[in-house]
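Support reply, case 0932

Customer input (verbatim):
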Amino acid sequence: MENDPVLRPPNNLVYGLEDRMPPGAALLVSLQQVSAMVVGVITPALLLSSILKFSAADTAYLTSMALVAAAIGTFLQTTRIGPIGSGLLSVTGTSFAFIQPLSQAGHAGGLPLMFGMSLAAAPVNLVLAPFLPRLRKFFSPLVCGIVVLLVGLSIIPEAMYGIIASPGLGAPSWAGAAIAGCVIAAVVVAQAVGQPWTRLAGIIFGVAAGYLVCGVFGYLHAPPPGENGWITLPRLAPHGFSFRWEFLLPFCFIYVVSVMESLGDMTATAQLSGLKTRGAEHGLRMRAGIYADGITTVISALIGSFPSTTYAQNNGVIQITGVASRYVGRWMAAILALLGLFPFVARWVTAMPAPVLGGLALMLFGFVSVAGLRLIAHSGLSHRNALVVALALAVGIGAPSQAQWLSTLPSFLRTLLESGVSAGGVTALILNLALPSDQESPMAFGTEE
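Our regenerated output:
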């Protein structure tokens, strides 16, 4: 039927969006999904703590609350409670896009100003969500695909830092790359076997291979002991809030970029799940997903965590495992909450050797880029669309490389151009609106009826 929003599930899916999985298989896939996102969830907190010299206690609390907020957001997205949540296998975590404005706010006013500005600008998501169908020209699959592609390209270098890291004292310079190669090889072999169970466990096989190599050569080490006891409970406004007007515009703009990124990630997830990426049903899913992101971000600020967004990493896991079932999200939320509330468990998970994590991340981040390419291809590469893609990628990759020039610009422009995602995304938005359409392009959010 023409109005049916669900297409025939892709042949490479083992479990579709509404398929319920056996508990054992669901746990296995959820562990792989969490392993793909957990370091990304806590890295912004760790990075900002290092930049701003936070105490060990504050760093530990920020890390725990990032995981708790991710659990809340993932549960809302995958469960779809009324008008809240996309109902896709979409996961939520701390947004990397906010590191620059958060760092600026932290230098000016510490944690109170960081949380205050995060909370003050958070309504941007909630305000934009009801108007998404009317904004479909702004957020077409072409624009969303470019944003997702830039997200993938921008985070791939982060994986290389883990790959080239030394796994232990006295290790040769090539040891990290060799370990990462073993991780990737194990996943590739698991995919090549062609059996559903090997696809489901592909990432686990890769991590296990990496740990095995590290163990044989003496590169495994126990995590340092913690100082916060057995459990970390959320506290309401643990550092209070403060506000300064000059920070409002940069934060609001990054929230708009975050909406674009989330729409691109969720549209990619919908496509991988065998759903149409246009029409009224898709529009409702996207609107509900942005509501979930907005609510999660408000909760994050209230309990002492940084802004959240829908992640792209899970799209790589969907492609590797062939599992798009949203019911996996409940298992993932439980695991993330466990990691956040019980820091002893989180310390062991985050003690994963850097080359193991780097090899896994390199592959998953590559799949994020592929998800963006799929959306671009879905829009069609006409001359007009090719021009939009070319200029957006050129600005998104070129502008952030000129750090010396960026340092001379006003703070707003510097914040915009330092991020390849925001620079390229805004370029794509402007060109998509300015250039006349030379063909009927599929819209991301359908038509008003």
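We compared this against your earlier run and they match. Two observations from our side: Strands lie at 92-94, 308-310. The chain has two domains: 23-233+245-380, 381-436. Please reopen the case if you see a mismatch on your end.
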